[in-house]
Amino acid sequence: MYLHSEQRLGSTGLGLCVVSKKVAIRKLICTDADLAAIGVEMGKGRDLVIREVRIAIEDAVRRAMVLIERAESQLKKPRATLQAGDAMRQRFRDAFGTAPEFIPTWRPAGQTWDVGGMVRERLRCAAKIMSEGDIEFVAWGPGSCPFAFDWTTRPWAVVQGGRSRICLGQTFWRAAGRVDTEGMATTLLHECLHIFFDTMHHHGLEKWAYNTPTCYERYVLLCGGIPIPPDVDEPCPSKLPGAPIAKIGKRRKLVRLAGVGIGELAQPSDTERSIDFITKVLQINPRDGYIKGSSARRKLHLAILTVPLPSAREIHDQLKAGTGAVGQLFQGRLHSATRKWVLDMLWRRHLIHSKLSQ
């Protein structure tokens, strides 16, 4: 479970993230060269001025705020019943595979939240950090983003886990040129969820796949009555047998790592990239080891969480056998208790995949 400001979600209150009514974009990086490049991408035939860039980003944030409010307000208690309630619960199931009233077995004793409340809080926290002015927007990522990234892939945006910075890519500004406000808005939601999740404290509670921003993006689009693009057609898998699973499409937004942080793998079957991610984390080789509570341990945890479910068994077996470069690093760098912890996580992901495939 991701928690905010060291406070646990429970009877004392979801609602820790208070969303501002106003949009403040206080940190904007955009050089003259960036203005020229954005103008070309948008098909303007001229350089933009900084005011145009700021307005485009602010409009996207405002649209995102409207979509988020429409989605999260439906999860506020008491929730709708009868026909309206049935429609709301169907949208939630479409995105997350279960009803918002579902209570996971790992919810700590004495707390009263359900998964609907958790999703609502996360959406509100994404809206909060998006609008309150603390995020630094790098308008033209290919020219001014400090993250190491191959911009020839033409992403919508790039973030690094734990950093309040969004570098906007070529596809974002191409969408601005054709006034695709929904695409721009959900891009910012997606990236703010990445930033928000990586700065939360995991505490080993979360067992479900509720940490995939694409699933929240899908839910928001459903609540807004907006057609789901093929590349967002990916609901979170549920551990419940028989839960609906929509087809998995190509991801619209690619979030890559600058150094080691949280990101997305290109496709669920991309085992090689999963192994490469784990290898990079193991190559850190901290002096004190991957002890609980350390930055290296957290990065290792995140690396395992990003392993696609279909790849979990293969990677589990390779690490356990110590084969290949990653297997040798795994056996040589980690304490036996840490190795067991990693292998147990991978095995649980394999079991989830097995249930979903039945």
Descriptive notes:
With 358 residues, the protein is mostly helical. It is built from 13 helices and 4 strands. It has 2 domains: 27-232, 3-Layer(aba) Sandwich (Collagenase (Catalytic Domain)), CATH 3.40.390; 271-357, no CATH class. Helices cover 48% and strands 4% of the residues. A hairpin with a 5-residue loop joins strand 3 and strand 4 (165-168). Helix 7 (181-199) crosses helix 8 and helix 11 packs antiparallel against helix 13 (336-357). It is globular and about 60 Å long.
Looking at this protein, list some descriptive labels.
358 residues; mainly alpha; 13 helices; globular; 4% strand; 4-stranded mixed sheet; Collagenase (Catalytic Domain); single chain; disordered N terminus
Topology, element by element:
Layout: E1 27-29, H1 32-42, H2 50-72, H3 82-96, H4 115-131, E2 136-138, H5 141-144, E3 157-159, E4 165-168, H6 170-177, H7 181-199, H8 213-223, H9 271-282, H10 295-305, H11 312-321, H12 324-333, H13 336-357
Parallel strand pairs: 1-2, 2-4
Antiparallel strand pairs: 3-4
Helix pairs in contact: 2-4, 2-7, 2-8, 3-8, 4-7, 6-7, 7-8, 9-10, 9-12, 11-12, 11-13
Radius of gyration over all CA atoms, rounded: 21 Å
Average predicted local confidence, pLDDT: 77
* Major sheet attributes: 4 strands, mixed
Q: Strand pairing plus helix content: what structural class?
A: mainly alpha
| Name of the CATH architecture of the largest domain | 3-Layer(aba) Sandwich
Shape: globular
Number of extended strands:
4
